[in-house]
């Protein structure tokens, strides 16, 4: 378990008067929100030093820091690194990094910031708009995701690489799971398995079908960018999840909390991010009314 630096709260003032649910995970806690670790998504890496809750940060935002920069944050809480795959391929049609470049960057982050709980590989999402932009099939993106994970795990073995299941239908994910097994990777034995291509679906029902299938087989799932509605319905099928929908919500609704001292709306506001996180925690608690816990 990594040792995290002391949290400096100078830029997260106590004037917020927020009640923050503890983030420490306990599989047998009475509070359902303690059985799932939720990583608050952030596009402000310096939050890593000051945040009182676990964070998910994109490799693209961390890459903006120069090696050895004095501005590089030091993690005061658990954090994970997302590859930013959807945005990368949606905007550019393919990865602009190769595995050697990416693996080297991740090693630098590990040394400068601290050890993340996991790092996503250069996975390739399977949303229809991404496939259209890339001119690829679901199978091709599954093969690319598996190859990236295998290469990174072999060549950069000290990083906590997260195997990611990609697909669109349940049958796709089952096939990708079989591809991992054929490559010698038993995902049921992994500490955590990422479930990709779940955050931009029109309906949450397929997410529940897919997550239930693997969770009931003992897979410990991480949900990338899960909607609050999906967590409210299916949280017991996940061991962890992340989202930064708080920022999009503030931008789309032009939200500004009373009493905030920053300029403009709250799309970069720690106070709103933590307030929104508590709404997510409440949704996770409500999930007990929808699906039986897997214990």
From TrEMBL:
Q: InterPro entries from the xrefs?
A: DpdA
Question: What sequence ranges are listed for the domain DeoxyPurine in DNA protein A?
Answer: 37-284
Recorded hits in Pfam families, A to Z, give: DpdA
Q: Which domain of life is it from?
A: Bacteria
Q: What is this protein called?
A: DeoxyPurine in DNA protein A domain-containing protein
| Organism the protein comes from | Lentzea atacamensis
């Amino acid at each position: 378990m990594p040792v995290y630096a002391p949290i400096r709260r100078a830029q997260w003032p106590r004037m917020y008067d927020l009640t923050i649910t503890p983030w420490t995970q306990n599989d047998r806690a009475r509070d359902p929100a303690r059985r799932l670790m939720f990583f608050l998504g952030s596009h402000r890496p310096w939050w890593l030093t000051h945040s009182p809750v676990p964070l998910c940060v994109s490799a693209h935002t961390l890459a903006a820091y120069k090696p050895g920069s004095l501005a590089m944050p030091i993690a005061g809480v658990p954090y994970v690194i997302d590859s930013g795959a959807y945005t990368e391929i949606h905007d550019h049609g393919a990865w602009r990094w190769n595995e050697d470049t990416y693996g080297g960057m991740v090693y630098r982050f590990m040394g400068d910031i601290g050890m993340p709980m996991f790092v996503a590989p250069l996975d390739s999402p399977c949303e229809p708009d991404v496939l259209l932009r890339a001119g690829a099939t679901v199978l091709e993106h599954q093969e690319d995701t598996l190859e990236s994970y295998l290469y990174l795990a072999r060549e950069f073995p000290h990083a906590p690489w997260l195997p990611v299941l990609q697909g669109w239908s349940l049958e796709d994910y089952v096939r990708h799971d079989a591809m991992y097994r054929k490559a010698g990777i038993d995902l049921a034995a992994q500490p955590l398995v990422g479930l990709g291509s779940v955050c931009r679906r029109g309906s949450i029902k397929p997410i529940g079908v897919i997550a239930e299938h693997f969770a009931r087989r003992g897979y410990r799932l991480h949900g990338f960018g899960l909607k609050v509605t999906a967590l409210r319905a299916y949280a017991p099928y996940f061991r962890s999840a992340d989202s930064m929908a708080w920022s999009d919500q503030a931008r789309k609704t032009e939200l500004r909390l009373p009493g905030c001292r920053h300029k403009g709306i709250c799309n970069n506001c720690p106070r709103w991010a933590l307030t929104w996180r508590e709404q997510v925690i409440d949704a996770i608690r409500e999930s007990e009314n929808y699906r039986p816990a897997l214990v």
